[in-house]
Design brief:
Residues 23-53 form the 4Fe-4S ferredoxin-type domain. By secondary structure, this protein is mainly α. It is built from 3 helices and no strands. It has helices at residues 10-13, 37-45, 54-57.
């Protein structure tokens, strides 16, 4: 029978000794307008501090080209 879940610690399995906690999410980029409201909502929901300068620290892909 196949495994339903992946490894419990994929960073350690990949050889990383001190992996920093990370968060990620999937979104429907076909309706993205580049407003980054989804990023703000995710940070509020997960109690992650806001970026001091979003222009310098943003690391998302905006599908605003159509």
């Amino acid at each position: 029978m196949g495994q339903l879940f992946g490894p419990r610690d994929p960073a350690a399995d990949a050889g990383w000794q001190h992996a920093h906690p990370r968060k990620g999410f999937f979104t429907d980029t076909s309706i993205c307008i580049g407003c980054k409201a989804c990023e703000v909502a995710c940070k509020e929901w997960n109690h992650v501090p806001a970026d001091p300068d979003p222009q310098l620290l943003a690391s998302s892909y905006d599908n605003t080209g159509g």
